[in-house]
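Lecture notes, continued. The same structure-token format from the folding unit now serves as the input rather than the output. Read the line below as a description of shape only.
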């Protein structure tokens, strides 16, 4: 059922035959790529890595694209521009995770050739597989639904809003099948155990036969951790311009910039 729901969303919202997919080695992005492929769409996969790091996601996306005959564009992110890029991100990012997750797409979106950009964005929110969710929210359906309600609150969708803004600026249409109302209803009808046992994300894996052909589909790992972005952003702690309050945590630096951008001047910020 979930396979049909994802496929139907793409069928109803994507009119072009050639599409872009933001691809990693994970279940979420692969599932929307497989759904599009099942509709006969021509897939152009885009993935990234930092210029200082190797990346499993990048190599897996490249491998899968070659396996299924998809076009592939690998974007190498120039880490030497981090300070300038942080300033660009500070205009619309608030939390540390927003900065880190949006950062590479400053370089991906300008290279996308197709009109429609399909992403597995938001899928993780249905499973409750963060450390916080596993410790505090998986034990009853009421708690699990509370976690998911909070995850999908409009004010928590900065990442989505940023992708939407970037796609709009580049004349693209950002497509997120996992935000389809019927998809959300499917996941909300399941308990934490039903979604994560016997295997994480097994409903989606079972929905597309192509998963059986892909070796070593990785378990969930945050984009910013796997890619090395978290470590890269740690270097901002030593930058006096960015870390103007001499914080010891990147999350506090990001919070400072959010507050600063809601005041008129740096001097006013310190009042």
């Amino acid at each position: 059922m979930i396979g049909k729901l994802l496929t139907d969303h793409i069928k109803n919202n994507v009119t072009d035959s050639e599409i872009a997919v933001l691809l990693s080695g994970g279940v979420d992005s692969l599932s929307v790529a497989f759904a599009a492929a099942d509709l006969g769409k021509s897939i152009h996969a885009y993935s990234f890595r930092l210029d200082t790091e190797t990346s499993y996601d990048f190599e897996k996306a490249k491998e899968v694209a070659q396996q299924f005959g998809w076009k592939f564009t690998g974007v190498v992110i120039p880490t030497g521009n981090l300070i300038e890029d942080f300033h660009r991100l500070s205009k619309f990012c608030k939390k540390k995770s927003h900065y880190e997750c949006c950062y590479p797409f400053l370089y991906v979106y300008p290279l996308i050739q197709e009109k429609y950009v399909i992403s597995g964005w938001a899928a993780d929110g249905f499973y409750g597989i963060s450390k916080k969710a596993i410790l505090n929210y998986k034990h009853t359906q009421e708690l699990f639904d509370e976690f998911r309600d909070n995850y999908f609150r409009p004010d928590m969708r900065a990442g989505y809003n940023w992708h939407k803004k970037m796609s709009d600026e580049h004349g693209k249409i950002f497509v997120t099948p996992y935000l389809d109302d019927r998809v959300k209803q499917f996941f909300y009808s399941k308990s934490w155990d039903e979604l994560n046992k016997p295997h994480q994300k097994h409903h989606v894996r079972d929905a597309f036969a192509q998963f059986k052909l892909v070796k070593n589909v990785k378990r969930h790992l945050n984009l910013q951790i796997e890619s090395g972005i978290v470590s890269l952003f740690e270097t901002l702690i030593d930058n006096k311009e960015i870390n103007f309050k001499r914080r010891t945590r990147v999350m506090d630096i990001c919070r400072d910039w959010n507050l600063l951008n809601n005041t008129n001047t740096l001097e006013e910020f310190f009042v």
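Point for the exam: The domain at 2-222 is CATH 3.40.50.620 (Rossmann fold).
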